[in-house]
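Our preliminary data section would be incomplete without showing what the modeling component actually yields. Below, a chain of 82 amino acids is followed by its predicted structure, encoded as tokens that our downstream tools consume directly.
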Amino acid sequence: MEVTIRKMGNSQGVLIPKPILAQLGLEGTADLQVRDGVLEIRPVRRNPREGWAEDAKRVAAASDDSLVWPEVGNAGDDELVW
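Predicted structure:
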């Protein structure tokens, strides 16, 4: 597909058609790199647990970390050796 490079403010850019963005799963942000003279644009791959440690600290600081369900023991749990 041939596209036009357009002036966008002080920069230049290319408009990517919505169907192509959807096909690639691009939304919000993207990873943009040049490799061997080729412009690559890919979805940003983040760690799914990114930010969990900070969220856990925030929840604990707010004293909002009580059990949702009361502890439930199984018959014979008191006999287990750990």
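The mean pLDDT is 87. The first strand starts at residue 6 and ends at 8. Preliminary results of this kind motivate Aim 1 of the renewal.
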